[in-house]
Amino acid sequence: MAQRTVPILKKLFSDTPPHLRSCLRSITYMPRPGRGGSIPVNPITGEGIPRPVTLIPGDGIGPLVTDAVEQVFEAMRAPVTFEKFEVHGDMNTIPDDVMASIKKNRVCLKGGLITPVGGGVNSLNLLLRKELDLYVSLVSCFNLPGLPSRHENVDIVVIRENTEGEYSGLEHEVVPGVVESLKVITKFCSERIAQYAFEYAHLNNRKTVTAVHKANIMKLADGLFLESCREIAKRYPNIKYNEIIVDNCCMQLVSKPEQFDVMVTPNLYGNLVANTAAGIAGGTGVMPGGNVGTEYAIFEQGASAGNVGKPKIVEKKRANPVALFLSSAMMLRHLQLPDYADRLENAVKRVIFEGKYRTKDLGGSSTTQEVADAVISALE
């Protein structure tokens, strides 16, 4: 069985883009929403010049919430122009003109894309991350004033390795009824995600980085991830570093989430941890996030980004746009437009705090348009 894995591993590394094999490029750090003072490396916009951004409305609730973002950007006269493309999750691949737009603009805002279950159909979300080497997934999970949640004082940033692990897509049927799925962990990818996590903590005045793992069982794979985190941690003596096994991590999250600050994880664990933390702090509908690499960035709903919503929500036009509003604020900071980001965040927080306009998942009955109108009215 082991011999069968060799051609697959060769294919993995032969398909690796050249810039993934070199760690000489600088990293673009995503400031956390609501946290000022950190400036991304490599400015990507000029003062007073409208910045083109690729927009993919996506499936389900995607067109509703991205349209709400467009309205808010127009209302606050943000110097951003959108290049909009129709992309759907049941497509075989990302159209060439869409990929060309993202590579030209370097920044994309995206609604959810449906991910077919089974059937051998590729996830376009994964294709985008791999093609653009978006090796960091960052999700911010925090309490919003006025929004009831299961726990208070939650302020967690989940930084997830985004390109390998169980998501490598290396599966094959050995014999009928026996499928082998490979989990690939490399020192290069583990070190660069750890470096990102510690540098993010440093830039944003965070105190602790926690590595999530299952090295007690997957001693080689997760063991390599931990070794890489430990090596990077030595370069940041002012940041506390600790480790936690993923099953204990989930238990601790639902019982005492305030103990966590920045969490760095392999691919699969990060997906589970981010959604758990989001559920604790107010729900996936209010959690922003983005995917970033050395050259490109895609911003989308942070937790359950592939969740396109139930058909009734789409029919009644009651999708929650808050998560994408806050993800858009992250995008504005990435574009070095912090004043606009602050205006958008403050408006969203004011609407949430007042509580008059909320969608069903937040305990209200408002439509997407009503929430968007409220945010526009709250803009300073």
TrEMBL record:
Biological processes per GO annotation: isocitrate metabolic process; tricarboxylic acid cycle
SUPFAM superfamilies (UniProt xref): Isocitrate/Isopropylmalate dehydrogenase-like
Domain Isopropylmalate dehydrogenase-like stretches: 52-375
Database matches in InterPro entries: Isocitrate_DH_NAD (IPR004434), IsoPropMal-DH-like_dom (IPR024084)
GO cellular component, one term: mitochondrion
Primary localization class, coarse: mitochondrion
UniProt family annotation: Belongs to the isocitrate and isopropylmalate dehydrogenases family.
Record-given protein name: Isopropylmalate dehydrogenase-like domain-containing protein
